[in-house]
Amino acid sequence: MSAISSWNxxxxxxTTLSFSWRPSLPSRPRKRKxxxxxxxxxxxxxxxLVAEKLGDPGIQLLKTFANVDCSYNLSPEELCTxxxxxxxxxxxxxxxxxxxxFESSMGRLKVVGRAGVGIDNVDLxxxxxxxxxxxxxxxxxxxxxxxHGIALLTAMARNVxxxxxxxxxGKWERSKYVGVSLxxxxxxxxxxxxxxSEVARxxxxxxxxxxxxxxxxxxxxxxxxxxxxxTFEEALRTTDFISMHMPxxxxxxxxxxxxxxxxxxxxxRIVNVARGGVIDEEALLRALDAGIVAQAALDVFxxxxxxxxxxxxxxxxxxxxxxxxxxxxxxxxxxxxxxxxAVVGALKGELAATAVNAPxxxxxxxxxxxxxxxxxxxxxxxxxxxxAGGSGVKFVKVAYASARGPDDLDTRLLRAMVTKGLIEPISxxxxxxxxxxxxxxxxxxxxxxxxxxxxGSPEKAVEFIQVRIANVESKFASAxxxxxxxxxxxxxxDGKPHLTRVGSMGVDVSLEGSIILCRQVDQPGIIGKVGSIxxxxxxxxxxxxxxxxxxxxxxxxxIGVDEEPSRDALKKIGEISAVQEFVFLKL
Length: 587
Ligand SMILES: NC(=O)C1=CN([C@@H]2O[C@H](COP(=O)(O)OP(=O)(O)OC[C@H]3O[C@@H](n4cnc5c(N)ncnc54)[C@H](O)[C@@H]3O)[C@@H](O)[C@H]2O)C=CC1
Ligand SMILES: O=C(O)C(=O)COP(=O)(O)O
Hints:
26 strands
């Protein structure tokens, strides 16, 4: 049995929302907390599999909360076998977390923690499809990677590795190892993110002219440290040194290929502490052989470790290190703590600040939206249960009535909750913020969102929310509104979710327990009859509202009940002669 019985996004009034974050380590840059809620129901201690060497402070922190299984160098098969017994997995760059891993976990794996930055070794689509959160440790190794980039840059320019090997071999080859100077040379940073900008700062200190190519980096951030952002073309054409700092993505894969090398300044020198895959290694070899690239310093390779006979590694103008960018004592300590905090937090159902495959909802937004989280899930649950069997749910509209401007209301969390409410009652999948959009798409449910713009004060985030299902029949005809859609509407009153409309009728019941919707001839005595059937069964009525469609003709009764009435009781309600239709809905 899984220690984590289920994940859900419910922030109901009885679910604790914790915003108490451990203070960042002094050595780590403070990050702006953007948060994701993934609440986990807790049973026994969860199990965390640490599949690669992780700093001791991280292991100790994990042990305060979980059973920790440190099993290094597992084969892919061994990892797949072990994973079905684990709630979380922590890896570095050496473990491929493939689709097979998620499939083999059979739903138990809830968090993958990447103890570092690059998440190209984790199949994010598979993680998302399996509702598994992926978190990384994005800041603690920045400086280490930047320092290693500078170490490689200077070592390459002065032939340190080759000269060292030569001296150790008993030689004294001073004229062979004349280097090139860095001062006054141009360095192009490819990927002006955390590592790239730290390399830029340091290179400026060495007297280099630094330019950068990064289609997504803000020019003012670059300008602030005296770096000009340029096009890829310009970077290739003008620079003496290139340093890679972009992530490996489909867009950056083999970004440096024959074509790119044909456009560089002859004799360019290249440093790569990003990922081997951003360079077409065969093309680099050709460029080195042709003297187009004078030297390369590589910390990362397409295949790690590279084969012994790898011609690039053995090339006399190449220096290589075994993916050491993050390998300083300080960085490994920081990374271990950063990832352990993230994984423990996610397992506890706290807020994940470094989620990679889920929208990150800022803390202040989350606090504000938390009452609507329960409301949206319950509206989704009610709406789908009103659909008559046989009509597939395909088109769902969620309308938010708010006086806020369109950019002032982040609805991703609420949409995910509607999806959860819609899909969970009719399937065995569980839905969370990670997989909601994927599951909806996979099941062919198109969820569109719209605004009902209200006048007035934008202080309250949402006044009311409607969930509408189009192109279906309803098992409770009165739930269809004039537009022919099943419609339920709710609002938050005193912090609690309330159902305020069904079809075109205004109702008012607190969304607790379950609901009986009943349309009857508007005549005295019906409420009493239904009440006594429920009373005989010991079913407590917690809320009731009656709305008349037409006086003396029809009325709809909405009854909130704490317990589920027996089939017999429901049958008896249906047999009351004035009752025209009724439906029991579980929340
Ligand atoms: N060798 C090692 O041990 C280490 C390697 N790394 C690698 O360095 C990479 C960068 O790390 P951070 O700076 O922390 O990440 P980051 O996310 O702060 O920066 C990456 C930058 O690359 C840019 N980028 C994305 N696509 C691009 C493209 N097509 N062309 C140019 N720029 C592009 C992004 O806009 C972003 O500014 C990581 O993804 C990881 O692969 C990071 C740490 C250690
Ligand atoms: O953080 C990264 O992206 C790195 O490449 C570091 O990799 P490592 O954790 O040292 O295997």
